[in-house]
Amino acid sequence: MLDRPFLTTVVGSMPRPKFFRDRVDRHLADGAGEGDLLDLMDRSIPYVAALQEAAGVDVISDGEWRRKSYVGVIAEMLTGVEQFKVPLDSFRHDARVGYAVIGPVAPTREGLFAEEAVKLRRNTSKAVRVALPTPHLTASFLWDPVKSPPHCSEREFIETMVPIIRREVELLRDAGVRYVQFDDTRIGGAHAEEPESVAYRDALFDSVDTLNRVVDGIDGIYTSLHLCGKRHIGPDQVPRYDTMLPGFERLHIDMPMFEMLQFDDYDRALLCGLPERMDVGCGCVASKTFEVDTPAEIAARAREAAKIVGPERTALHPDCGFSPGTYFDIPLDEIYQKLGNMTRAAEMLRAEA
Ligand SMILES: [Zn+2]
To answer: Which residue has the higher pLDDT, 149 or 165?
Structure first.
């Protein structure tokens, strides 16, 4: 259950300042030490916490500023993973940090996520959330069909990650973190062109059951699953999530977080079919545009969700992280405006309820 109607939160990442991007670049180019980098980021966490507090967000993150990327943090915790720079020609960034499993994988730095939470909590009185990748998402970024050792299949790597990520969740709970978020941009995407097929169901259920094994039996946390990018594109070319409903029925997560910028009939079908035990994360703020959504635009999207599931089951958040990769160059003031308009939208909606 949400702490309040129309709770506001973030998906996780915030754009990294240029000094951070430069340091990561140097590290990847010549192996320059990470100690200085982490020290600088630790001293920057109060700023990113203050930005979200000033915008009025209820549950905040550390912007994932202690990570080179939202998935890559896993690489910092394991043996056998190499890191490298991948040049890109993409929206607002020209590179990303790449990873590959190249040797035996074992955990070396247990509690890295809890460490993030502790550093953030020292700098805020707000509730905090910490995001972890799912085992499947980790594999899709770290396991490489060419570079990874022949004795370690993708499936074996996923199984290796289940207890490692589960342990991180337990340590987050022990550190007093209530809001634990999982990121999976792929779940429900395999064979999505044939949502009636056995292959689609098998892949969906496998992802869901694997995630359930990460969280089952861990009390005292509130779990979310961030799912940006609607998965199934039907003959009408409109992307939708509702084909994932059989997966949600068996998913042990408190709140899926959906992208809902263009709320449509497919979204209505999705929310009508969602188990009542689940709250709904309404991704109603555009994270990837230069334009800043107005409070009225944001409220209009969340209002549609609340009409179906009620204000007490509706949370507001951006449709995605504000910085999917380290190299993104986005002004933090723009993020502050977007978050501020989101909390104004939530106030408008609470006044109506
Ligand atoms: Zn996303």
So the answer is: 165
pTM over 0.90: yes
Q: How far apart are CA 134 and CA 207, in angstroms?
A: 9
How far is ligand 1, taken at its centre, from the CA of residue 102, in Å? Answer: 27
Domain ranges within the chain, ordered by starting residue: 7-352
Within a 13 Å sphere around the CA of 242, how many CA atoms are in the beta-carbon half? 13
DSSP for 182-201, written as a single string = EE-SSTT-TTTT-TTSHHHH
- In the reported structure, the alpha carbon of residue 30 is separated from the centroid of ligand 1 by a whole-number distance in angstroms of 30
Protein residues within 5 Å, CB atom, of ion ligand 1: 228, 320
Ligand 1: distance of its center to the CA of 113 in Å? 19
The CA 259 to ligand 1 mean position distance, Å, reads 8
Reported as a pLDDT band with limits 50, 70 and 90, residue 70 is confident
The whole-angstrom separation of Cα 86 and Cα 83 is 10
User: Separation of 228 CA from ligand 1 center, angstroms?
Assistant: 4
CB 54 within 8 A of CB 81: no
Answer yes or no: are the C-beta atoms of 133 and 227 closer than 8 Å: no
Four-way CATH pick for 7-352: 3.40.50.300, 3.30.1050.10, 3.20.20.70, 3.20.20.210: 3.20.20.210
